[in-house]
Fold this sequence. Notes:
The protein is of the alpha/beta class. The protein has helices spanning about 10-25, 60-65, 70, 85-95, 95-100, 125-140, 145-150, 165-174; strands spanning about 5, 30, 45-55, 55-60, 75-85, 105-110, 110-115, 115, 155-160. The strands form 2 sheets. Strands 1, 2, 3, 4, 5, 6 and 7 form a 7-stranded mixed sheet that branches. A two-stranded antiparallel sheet has the order 8-9. The two termini are about 10 Å apart.
Amino acid sequence: MSQVFYATLYGSTKQYADALAERLGTEAQEITRESASLIRASAADPIIVLSPIHGSFIRGAKFLNELGPAVVEKRKVCLAPVGIALDHVLAETDPAADLLGDMAEHVKRVYLPGRLNYSELAPDHHDIMETRIEKMKAKDERSENEQMMVDIYDTDVDRVDLSRLDPIVEWAES
C-alpha cells in the first residue's frame, strides 16, 4: 500500500494529498519530525510526497533528502510539488531536481497546479509577495511566468485540478 505524505501552507496540497490517499486506499500523513520513522527502506510500497513550492523551497524535497539515498534509491518514490507557476515553466526548470541532487534520478516528479488566495495569506507572506511583484513590475522585460504573477497579484486564483492526480495513481499502481 502506498504511503502518502504531505506538507501544506494554505490547504491546496492537503486537498491533493487527501484525494490521492482516498484513491489509493490509504491515509495521507502530514510531514512531521516523526514521519521518517514511519518509512522502512526494505518495504516495497511506493512513497508519494506532496508539498507546496514556497519561493525556492520545497518541503517535500527536504523530507526526501532527510530520508536519504538508503530509502529513496531502494523505494519507488514520487514527489509532487504544488505551485502557482505556469505548468510548462515548472516542467522546463524542474526546481525539485536541483533540490534532490543526485537522488533526482530516482524520484518521479509531477508538478501540480495550486491555489494562491491573497485574501488568505498571512501578513508576512503577503508582504513578501508584494515585494516580489514590485520587483517584477520594475523590470523592462518580464518572463511569461513573471507577467502571470503580476497579472494575478492581489486576486484569488485556484488552479487545483484533482484530475492531475491520475498519472500519480497510475504510477503507484503499476
